[in-house]
Amino acid sequence: MQTRIMLADDQALLRTGFRMVLEAEDDFTVVAEAGGGAEAIALAASVLPDVILMDVRMPGIDGIEATRQITAARPDSKIIILTTFDLDEYAFGGLRAGARGFLLKDAQPSELTAAIRAVASGDASVSSRVTRRMLELFGSKLPAADDEDASRLGALTEREREVFLAIAEGLSNPELAERFFLSESTVKSHVGRILAKLGLRDRVHVVILAYRLGLVGR
Fold first, then answer.
1. Does domain 144-213 have CATH number 1.10.10.10?
2. What does the pLDDT look like over 167-183, one tens digit per residue?
3. C-alpha closest to that of 29 among 120, 94, 122
4. What is the share, in percent, of the chain residues with pLDDT greater than 70?
5. 3-122 has which fold?
6. Where are the domains of the chain?
7. Do domains 3-122 and 144-213 have the same CATH topology?
8. Beta partners for 30?
């Protein structure tokens, strides 16, 4: 099956570059391009893409607000925020707005395609490099953990807690399987149970919770 992708970026040359990379893959097709947030919102509603690559800084409605509006209308929308963290001080807001992943604009093509496939399959995609940089910049702005946050971890088994911490480090499913000598299907089962027990939407929010609890990064 082909993954239908929408590009949202105000720089036409960047959209062209992304399109060339993506359409070189047999399982990707770019179905729409938006040059601003308002256009992205309208196209997302009419085209219903599988994955949206969303720039942060665009004229008018920015990528964070566009993400918020798109996910409010369609909670299962799968959006990857495109950012240059040194410039986009509000990129972290993409998490709260419902983004499933972050990707630096200087990412290698293999990173881009892997992130899209992960998000399209229902996973979240935040590389360890992006996770560390994100927390360096925005961790101090996260609200402190409360007793409820801490008590939720008590529902995890010892192995699930180990996997929880490894996810918070930024490990992918193959890396988790290698670390814990498990099959990828078993890893997926663990991840699913962890998300369900903790009431978290995806792996991105595992990172946030672990950071709030002081288990990583501080």
1. yes
2. 888 777 888 899 999 99
3. 120
4. 84
5. Rossmann fold (3.40.50)
6. 3-122, 144-213
7. no
8. 5
Side-chain-side CA neighbours of 85 within 13 Å: the count stands at: 15
Q: How many CB atoms lie within 10 A of CB 42?
A: 14
Instruction: Identify whether the C-beta of residue 128 lies closer than 8 Å to the C-beta of residue 161.
Output: no
Extract the tokens encoding 27. Answer: 């399982």
- CA–CA gap between residue 208 and residue 218 (Å, rounded): 12
* pLDDT per residue as tens digits for the range 124-159: 666 555 665 666 665 665 666 667 777 888 889 999
Determine the Cα–Cα distance for residues 148 and 107; give it in Å rounded to an integer.
37
CA distance 97 to 160: 27
Rounded to two decimals, the pTM is 0.70
Name residues of the chain where pLDDT drops below 70.
85-92, 123-146, 217-218
